[in-house]
# Entry
Amino acid sequence: MQEGNPKIRATPDAMVVFGRPPGHLRGALTRHTRREMQRKLRFCECYGVEEYYEYDPDRGALKGWLRRDDRLEPVSLMEGWISPRLRIRFHLQGADLMLYRPDGRRFETFIELDQRVTAEHQRAQAEHQRAERLAERLRALGIDPDEGD
# Structure
C-alpha cells in the first residue's frame, strides 16, 4: 500500500504447494508467474520499495534489487548479501535458501520450529507429570504440597 493512498497496493508473493512432483507447475504457470513478478517489480520500483527479492526454489535462484535514487537496481551477488534495511543475510545451500539474523543465528524453517515447539511441549508435559507424582508422594507422607502458596 502506498502511504497516504490505500487504493494503491500490491501483495507480496508466497506459494507453498504440497505433494507436487518437481517441475509439475512449470510451463504456462511459469510464464504467467514471470510476467506477474515483472509487473510486481515495476510496481515496487514505482512506489518507492527499498528492497525487492525473488527466490525460485525449483532452480535455487535468488535475485535482489536495491533502491538507488528512483530505481530498483539489481544486486550483483546475492550469496552472502546482507539486507541494508533488515540486516539479514541471504545464503543458498544448494537450492535451499537460508536466512540469518543480524546476530548470525539462522532463522528456523517451519519444520524446525514445529519440531522445537513439539519437543518443548512434550518436555513441559513430562515435567508436569513428574510434579504431579512428587505431589502425590508428599500427600502420602501427610504433607500438603499446595499449602503455603
Confidence is low (pLDDT under 50) at residues 14-18.
